[in-house]
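Beta-ketoacyl-[acyl-carrier-protein] synthase family protein
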Amino acid sequence: MLFSEEKKAVIVGYDAISPLGGDHAQQWRNAVAGRSGIGPLTRFPLREDFPVRIAGQLPDVDHLSYPFLTARHQAAWHSPVFKYGMLTVARALERSGIQIDSGLAPRVAVTYSSAVGGIDAVLTADRRLQAEQKLPHPYANPNSCINMIGGKVAMLTGAKGPILSTITACATGLTSILVGAMLMAQNRADVVICGAVDCSLVEPILAGFHTMNGAYLPKKGEENEPPERASRPFSVDRRGFVVSEGAGAVILTTREFAAAHGLNPSAELAGWGMTSDAHHFVMPAEETVRQCMIDALGDAGLQSGDIAAVNAHATATRAGDRVEFDALRTLFAGRLPPVSANKSLLGHAMGASSIIETILALRGMEEDLLLPTINYQPDPEMELDCVAQGARPLVQEHVLKNAFGFGGCNACAVLRKLV
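Predicted C-alpha cells:
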C-alpha cells in the first residue's frame, strides 16, 4: 500500500450541485427516481443553425443564498465557477463539522480545480473589445484563471496549507481527491478541501464538442427525441455525450485526525491508480485504462471479486464506452459486478463529473442503494448489468470509481464503506 494506515484518507463531508438539483437532498431524490437533469438548452439565445440544442443545466442556483459573498464580490467575481465552487465547499465543510481556526489553517490544503474554468470571462472580455471597443473588466483575467478557483476557496475558508489546481480534463474532480490524499500521505496536511467545478455551457465549447463528434447528435429523422432520452451510456443506440455543468466538494482528513477530533467518516479512499494512455488525445487505450483499475485494486489490497459495484466513467460515446467495458470485462474475468453510469442522469459536466459521481457513489454506499442507469438499451457486444430497472438495494463495502479524461488522463479509486 502507498499510504500508511494513520495517514489514509477518509471522507468526512461532501456536497454537490448538478442538473439534478441545487442541493444534495434534491439531487439524491431525483437520481434514485431515475429522473434526468437534461433538457432544452436555454442558457443563451440559439441561432437556427447552432448544432447543440440540449444540455444539463444547473437549476435555480443563481437564486440561492451565498452568505459568504457580498454583492461587491459577486460583481467582481462574475464567472459562475467561483460562487458555485465556493457554495459546495461551504456546505461540505459544514457537513464535516470541521472548524478551521488559526491553529489548524496551516494544515488545511486545497485541491480544487476545473477543466474549463472561467472561459465565459474570456468571451465577455473579447466581446467588449470587439463589439464595444472597450477594455476588459479589471477582474477579467483573474476570473479566467483556473487556479483562482482554489485560491478563492482558500480565502473563503482560511486554509493556508498547500494549494493545487490539477487539471486532468474529465478526470479532474477525482484527481483532486487523489492528489489531496497524496498530500496527507506525505504529512503535508491533515485536512484537504477537494473538488471541481465546470460551467461550460458557452457557445464555442458546445460547438467545438459537436465538431469533434463527441457531443450528442440525434439520428437523422429523430431530431425531436426527448432531451431526457439523449444520454444513454453503454446502450446500443448511444449517440455521444450531453454537455452539462456542476460542482462538487469532498472534505478529506487523515484517519488519525478524524479519530482525534471525533469525526465520523462515511468512507475511506482505500486505494487509487493513475495512468496515462500515451495514445491519442481523445481515444482511450484499453490496456492503460485497465492498468489504472488494477493499480487501484492493488493499492487497496483487494481482488476484483471484492468490488460490489462500479461507478463508471461512461460518457455514451461509441468508442469510449466500449474501451471501458473491455477493460472491465478483462479485469473481472467476465464476472462483472453491477455497473452504474450516472451520466445517463447528469450528462457530462466535464471536470466536475467525477466529483459529482463520486459523491453519488458515497451516498449510495451509505444508503445501501445502487443508482440506476437510465435510457439503457442492451448492446449485444457489451454484456453487463447496468442497473437498468431502477435503483437497487445493494450493500456496497467496496466501490470502484472510474474517471478518464482527454489527453489520456486516467484516474481510478476504490472507496471503502465505514458506516
